[in-house]
Amino acid sequence: MASGKLRLDRGASLPLVFPPAWTGRQSPYRTSRRVICLFLLVLCLGFQAGAQEAAVVTFTLDFPGSEPSHYVISVSSDGHSTYESDGKLSPESEADPFHLDFSISPATGKTIFDLAKRAHYFQGQIDSNKRGLASTGAKTLTYKDAQQNATATYNYSPLAAVQQVTQLFQNLSTTLEYGRRLQYFHRYQKLALDEELKHMEEMANENSLQELPAVVPILQRIARDSSVINPVRARAQRMIERAESIKP
Question: Cα torsion for 184, 185, 186, 191, to the nearest 10°?
Answer without folding.
Answer: 170
